[in-house]
Amino acid sequence: MQTKLPKALINTSHGKKAAAILSSCVHCGFCLATCPTYQLTGNELDSPRGRIYLIKSALEDNQFSPSSIKHLDRCLTCRACETTCPSGVKYSELVNIGRELIEHKRPVWQKVARYGLRQFLSKPILVNLTKPFTQHSAIQSPVIEQIATKGRVLLLTGCVQPTLTPNTNHTAKNVLTTLGYQVEQTSQQSCCGALDHHTSASNAALLKVQDNLDKWLALIESGLETIISTASGCGVMVKDYSTLFETDDVYYQKALTVSKHTKDIAEFLVEQDLSSLPKQKLKIAYHAPCTLQHGQKLPNLVEGLLTKLGYELTPITDSHLCCGSAGTYSIFEPTTSKQLRDNKVEKLTESQPELIVTSNIGCQLHLSKGTETPVRHWIELLDFY
């Protein structure tokens, strides 16, 4: 795709990155077949190719209307298009540049709502006040005493997961302890920065990211083996930290090191001897989060692990499509989000599973609102109760 970016922009880091990404798009349209929003609306502007044209227009100083903002906001950043794209277009990086470019053009009420949500979710003292009304899965088993024989790992606890789904972190820690690892945990205040990053609050995101990199690199240098995420949304953010920095920035190398040491809980466990863990004979449906299968590029990982553990997995039609959660998307785009959720629930429950499991708290909470079938993080299947 040919571009005519202004000289003032082409010489910036964002301009250079955007120009390189735009030039890699060959207009083939493969992305249309896997884009959830295009499947719903049939409008090319609600497809990756259409949004690329909108971003290109904005970068070239052409008009960017409220309608254009709507189409860009409707993108889930599910990255299914990246999995499909034969040219390797880094769409998610481009869409983040586009969103940051148009952020100042939003109506005041949108700016206030986005700022307020970021502030609320990033402050544990506020999130924890909602616990009596919002907690989804309470802790169900005793804490297993740590007797480390293998090494040290760091478990990313997340911002809202300790409040809304505490059994996820609890079970993950018990499982890792049982396997012989010393488990350290991040505090609830240690946000990965995804919330700020995906709502175009880049400066706030960078402050969190740099703080995390400094702390986690020090742990790695002291002998920590692996950083483990149970929320695939946090995991892909950490693995993508290096994309936030120039290659000559000291934090770029730090980000590469941290990313190299970061694994999804399934990615870590697939390399372990799991014979000591409990197993249940259940018929389950697994929803693969976009952040795991498309973002981290780990398709079929959890499915293979669960099958190896003896669970009966039901086949899922269109398993590559997003459930509509997408972080704050379900809040800011409720209509589209609900449509996608209902479509996904229909596919997940076709074979009448006893349980639906997933790998990300956002998907878990979102899906649970659309079905009476229990929805859990898959790691909870290995709980000791």
Q: Top keywords for this entry?
A:
385 residues, alpha/beta, Fumarate Reductase Iron-sulfur Protein, Chain B, domain 2, Rossmann fold, 3 domains, four-stranded parallel sheet, 8 strands, 49% helix
Nutshell version of this structure?
The protein has 385 residues and is of the alpha/beta class. It has 3 domains: 7-105, Alpha-helical ferredoxin (Fumarate Reductase Iron-sulfur Protein, Chain B, domain 2), CATH 1.10.1060.10; 133-269, 3-Layer(aba) Sandwich (Rossmann fold); 283-382, Rossmann fold (3-Layer(aba) Sandwich).
Broad structural category? alpha/beta
Our estimate of the beta-strand percent is: 5-15%
Described by strand count, sense and barrel closure, the largest sheet is: 4 strands, parallel
Spatial gap, N to C terminus: 57 Å
Corresponding CATH architecture of the largest domain: 3-Layer(aba) Sandwich
Task: Walk across the major sheet and give the strand order.
Answer: 2-1-3-4
* Sequence of secondary-structure elements: HHHHHHHHHHEHHEHHEHHEHEHHEHHEHE
Number of domains: 3
Query: What's the Cα radius of gyration?
Result: 21 Å
CATH topology of the largest domain: Rossmann fold
**What is the CATH class designation of the largest domain?**
Alpha Beta
Give me the number of helical elements: 22
Helix content: 40-55%
What is the total tally of β strands? 8
Q: Report the average pLDDT across residues.
A: 93
Uncertain segments? none
What is the overall shape? globular
